[in-house]
Amino acid sequence: ETGVTQTPRHLVMGMTNKKSLKCEQHLGHNAMYWYKQSAKKPLELMFVYNFKEQTENNSVPSRFSPECPNSSHLFLHLHTLQPEDSALYLCASSQALSSGRAKDEQFFGPGTRLTVL
Amino acid sequence: AQKITQTQPGMFVQEKEAVTLDCTYDTSDPSYGLFWYKQPSSGEMIFLIYQGSYDQQNATEGRYSLNFQKARKSANLVISASQLGDSAMYFCAMREGLSTNAGKSTFGDGTTLTVKP
User: Fold this and answer.
1) How far is CA B31 from CA A66, A89, A99, B59, B68, in A?
2) In a mutagenesis test of the A interface, which of B68, B105, B106 is the best target, namely the one with the most A β-carbons within 10 Å?
3) Average pLDDT score over chain A
4) Are the beta carbons of B13 and B82 closer than 8 angstroms?
5) What average pLDDT score do residues A86-102 get?
6) Residues in chain B with pLDDT values less than 70
7) Which value, to the nearest 10 degrees, does the dihedral of the CA atoms of residues B8, A44, A3, A48 take?
8) Which residues 23-82 of B have a C-beta within 8 angstroms of A?
């Protein structure tokens, strides 16, 4: 596998279910991100991890719980979601974040299309 | 606060012609990077081109070039010789280098490009 992979690609869940999204990067990066992309809305940054430490939580509801066990893996645990949480969830990775370093592009996975019934 | 503006929700271009997608940005950080991504209907975000705030020349990558006008804070993407496979959503993004937001990317709302045969 190369680049950034995400599983599952599609997920349908009820509001009482608990599920997890998985992201894995094979690029040797140290920063990983979760984004939410809803229809007719701009890409929303949810969480940022740098060297496994969470550096950003963009006011995300607690029903979304991220986990970064190592620099290559990122999870998003979902529980008691709402229908408005239906969206495309994109994972990305980049070189480690540091002040003065603006060059590094993010590499995105294919996304998980989530539908909450 | 940083901000990215893409004023064209949708654009049409004839195959083999050139097209310009507009992007303006706002930041007080002297060090920043500007990125363009392509998102086909499959959902994956694909990095296209990067321009650094201190770069003296406009960036080019194959058929993609970036018309960087620093004083006007614009970073328009030019696609030459459009192909049917260029039909996709295009996002402009910015990352600041020196601020406390170092490393975080902000994305515009995107422009949907349709290439006509």
Assistant:
1) 30, 29, 10, 16, 14
2) B105
3) 90
4) yes
5) 82
6) 1-2, 98-103
7) 140
8) 31-33, 35, 37, 42-47, 50, 52-53
